[in-house]
Amino acid sequence: MPTFTYMTRCDGCGECVDICPSDIMHIDPVYRRSYNIEPNFCWECYACVKACPQHAIDVRGYADFAPLGHSVRVLREEASGTISWKIRYRDGRVKEFTFPIRTTPWGSIKPPTEYAAPDANALNSQLLAHEPAALGVENLPTLPVLGKKEV
Amino acid sequence: MFTNPFTPLAPFVSPAVLQGYIVLMALAVAIGTVFDLLHEKKLTFFMQERKRAKAAAKLQLSATDMVAIATRTLVHDVATFGEFCNRHRRISHVLMFYGFVLYLITTIVMVCIYPADTHTPVVLPILWNIGVLITLVGGYWFFFFLRVNVVHDGQPPWRLVRADLFIVTLLASVTFALLLAVVEMAENSSATKVFASLYLFFTTLLFVSVPWSKFAHMFYKPVVAFQRRVEEADGSSDLPTPTTKGGERCPHSRT
Amino acid sequence: MSLRSSRNIKFVDSDILVIGGGFGGCGAAYESRYWGRNLKITLVEKANIERSGAVAHGLSAINCYMGMQWGENQPADFVRYARGDLMGLVREDLIFDIARHVDATVHKFEEWGLPIMKDPETGRYLREGKWQVMIHGESYKPIIAEAARKSASEVHNRIMVTHLLMDKVRPNRVAGAVGFNVRDGSFYVFRAKAVIVAAGGGSHIFKPRSVGEGAGRTWYAPWSSASAYGLVLRAGAKMIQMENRVVLARFKDGYGPVGAWSLLLKAITTNAYGDNYEAARFDEIKSLVGKYAETKPMPTCLRNHAMLQEIKAGKGPIYMQTQKVLDTKEKEEIGWEDLLDMTVGQAVVWASQNIDPKEKPSELTTSEPYVMGSHATCSGAWASGPEDCAPTDYQWGYNRMTTVEGLFGAGDTIGGSAHKFSSGSFTEGRIAGKSAVKYVMELAGNLPQVDEAQVKMLEETIFKPLENFEVGRNEIVAGSVAPGYISPLQGLQRLEKIMDEYAGGIGTFYVTSEPMLNRGIELLSMLKEDLDHIGAEDIHQLQRAWELNHRVWTSEAVLRHTLYRQETRWPGYYYRGDYPKLNDAEWHAFTASQYDAKTGEWHMSKLPVHHIIE
User: Fold this and answer.
1) Is the pLDDT of residue B13 over 50?
2) Using the 8-state DSSP alphabet, how is residue C450 labeled?
3) Residues C522-535 as b or e (16 or more Cβ within 10 Å = b)
4) Are A128 and C431 in contact (CB under 8 A)?
C-alpha cells in the first residue's frame, strides 16, 4: 500500500526524502512538498511515515488488492522509546497498539574503539569482538575435526 | 538613505496613483486567493474535510476551548513559525515574514500619510530599510541554502520550478526596493525612473501571481494548523494517542 | 559536448571499503573498526543506512539464535537443521561458523537497546521456535545503524556502487569500486585495499504476483536489486547455487510473516475445506525426494510443494486459521505486533478487507521466487571458510574471501550459508570485517592499484543511460514509447516476464526444463544487449537502470545454474519438468559458475558438498 503526502500537512522539510530506502519520496515542483514518485517501488516500510515531523505522510493500500476506506497510522516517539499504531478498518472498527522500540537512550551505543584494543593473539584466533564473554559460554565452539588447530 | 523612498517617485507617479496601486494590489491578493480556493475546488475539499472531522469528533469543544486553541495556534504556529522543526528554516521564515510585514506597513504609512511630504519622520524610512534588509537576508538565505529541493533532492539552486514563483517574485520585488533606495541617493532622475519601473513591475508580479504561486499558502497554513489542533483536542484525529503528554514531534539528530 | 563533461568526480581512499549498509555491512563496519583501530573504513550505501536494506520496517523475531548460554541449542544442531532444510546442500563450515558466533551478536544487540521479549517463567529470551526469539524490533535497523556510524570512518549515503574495480597489476584482485551520487550525479571512485560486498540479494527477478502499484509489495525489499551478485560475478568471483531460489508461503498479497502465528501461536494451515493437507501428501512427496521427505522439521520447500499440489487440485484458497488461536488479548497483541514490526502492509490488507484475525482466517499463498543468500536459501559467492574447521578445499585464504583476492562478502553475497537472517548476516559481516582487517594488515606494501583507463571507461558507461534518453528523446513527440531506448521499468518488466515464463516463475507453477531455460537464455541475451539502450530520464532513473543491470546479470546466472543442475532438488522452490526427481547419486553437489569478463564465457562446474557434522 503506497504512501502519499497530505497537502495541508507537509511543510517541505525533506526528512522523508532523506530516509526513503527506495529513493521514491521526492519534492514536487509545484508546491515544493513531498510526494511518492514511484508507488510500484514502495514497500510500505513506513520509514517516511514515521520520520515525518508533521505526520503528513500516510498510506493507502495498494490498489491491486486493498479496498478503500482504511487507515493504518503510526506515531513513533523516540524519547519515550515507543511506537503506537491506530488501525481503522473499512467497516469502521478501530484497533490500537503500543509497543516498545528501544531500551537504551538514542546515541548511547559504545563505539568499538572504546573497548580495550585486542592483541595479536586474539587477531589470529577465531574469536570475534567481545568473545568469548559475549557468547555467554566459556569457549567459542569449534569442531573436533581431525588435524585442525584449536581455537 | 533615511528619507521617504517614495517621495522621489512623485514627478512621474503621483501619490494618488501609488495609493490606488496599493489598494489594487491588496485586491489582487484577495481575488487571487479566492480564485485559488474556488477554481480547483480547494474550498469544497476543505469544507468536506471539516465536515468529516466534525462527524468523527469524540467530544464537543466549547467556545473557550476554541479560543484557547486559536490563541495557541497564533502564538506558536503563526507568530513564531513553530511548525518548522529545522531551526534554520524556522529562522529564515521568521525573518522573511516579519521583515516583509515591517516593510509593508511602513510602505503603506509613507505612501498614504506622507506621500509627497519631505518631512517624513526618520523612523519610518529606517524601519522600511530594516524591513527590506531582514526580508532579503532571510529570503536569499532560504533561496540558496535552505530550499528542500536544493538541500535534500540534489537540485542546483539556479534551477527554477513553479514552486519558486513566490520566493523569486518576493526577492525580486524587495531587492529592487533596496536598489531603488540606493539609486535615489545618486539623485539621477532617469536612473530613479528605471529602477522605480522595475520595482513596480516585480511588485505587481508578486501580488498578481497569487493564483499560481505559494503566496496563498501563507493564509492556508494557519487555518490548517488550527484545524489540526482542533482534531487533536476533539479526538477526531486518526493518529494514535501519544504516550507522552503532547507527544514529541521534531526528530532529534542522528548520532 | 553536454554540460555533463564538467561532472564532479570524487575520490575516496580506504583501507576497507564496505559496500552496502544493511545488516551485513553494518556488522562489517563494527567489527573491522574493533580490530583495525587506525584503519580507514568506508561504508557506502545507495540509500540511507538508518533504514536501508531488508530490515527497513523492523523485524518481529531474530531467527538465528542458539541460546548456548542456557544450553538450548548447539551450533552443530543448527547445521543439521539448515542442511535438512536445504535437502543436504549447504556449506556446513560456514553455517557452523555463524552459529557459533551469533549468540554474541544477539547479546550485543540487546546491550545496545534492542528489546528482546522474555519468557516470564524462565527469564530467558522468549522463543518463537527452536531457533527463533521474539523481539520488539521496530527500531532494529536504526539501532544497528547507530553502531555502524560509530564505527566507520565515513558513511556515504545515497551513493550507488555499480562496478568493482580490479587491480591493474595483479590479476584477479580487487582494487575498489565506482558509483554515483543519486542526488547530485557526481561520479565516485573508491580505492581500497580490501572490499566487503554486503549488498542486497534479488527481488524483482521473477514477475511478482501483483503488477500494478502492488509490485512494490514484493516479499523481499524492492530495493534488493541483486547487487550482491551483479557486482561480484562480473569481477570473476565463482558463484554457487544460483538456481537455489526461494519461494515463501506467506499471507496473501501483503506477504506478512507467518512465523509467530504458526510457531508461537500455533495456528494451523488448512485448505478451503478446513483439511490439514500436509500429512495426506506425504507419500507423494516421498516419491519425489526419497529419504529427505522424512527430515524433521519438514523442509520449507516440501511444505510449499504440498500447498501447491493442494492449490492445483482446486482445494484452495489455503487458509491460516488465525481465529482459533487468538483467545487472549496478549495473543492478539503478539499476532499484530508480528506484522506491525516488520510488514505493516499486511495490517493494511486486513484493515482494507475487514479481516479481523480474531474472527476470520487469512489466506496464504506461495510467493514469486527470490534469489538470495541470507534467508532460507543460499545462492551466492563461493567463499573461503573458517580456518579451524573448514575442509581443505573450502579454504584458500581469509575467512569469507571470495575467489577474487581482497574481495570479501557477507549476508546475501555469500553462498552456501543458509538461514542466517538478520543476526546471522550481521555476524557474517563481523567475520568478514575481521578477516578483511587481517588481510589488510598482512598486505604490507603490496597494494592494489586502480586502472585509470578502466575508471574512465566506466564513468562513460555509468552515465550513458542519461545520454541515451537525452539524445533519443528528440526522436519522439512525447510519451514513453521511443524506438531508440527503453526505460529501466520497461527493461525490468521484460526481465520478469522472461524469468517467469522460462525459468520457473508463478506463471508455470515454478516448472521449467532444458528447452525452456535455453529459450530464456536466448531472450535474456537480447535483453542484455538492450541494456546499452536503457534511457534514464534523471538520476533516480539512472539508479533504476543500474539496479536493472545487476538483476539481469544475476538472472543469467540463475538461468545457467538452473539449466546445469539436472534434477529437482527442491520441489516447492522449483521443478525441472525433464528431471522431476531428486538425484543424490549425481547431484549431491554445489553447482558453480565463473564468468570470464575477457571472453564473455560462463564456466560451469560442480563443487563437492562435505559433511563435517554427522
Assistant:
1) yes
2) B
3) ebbeebbeebebbb
4) yes
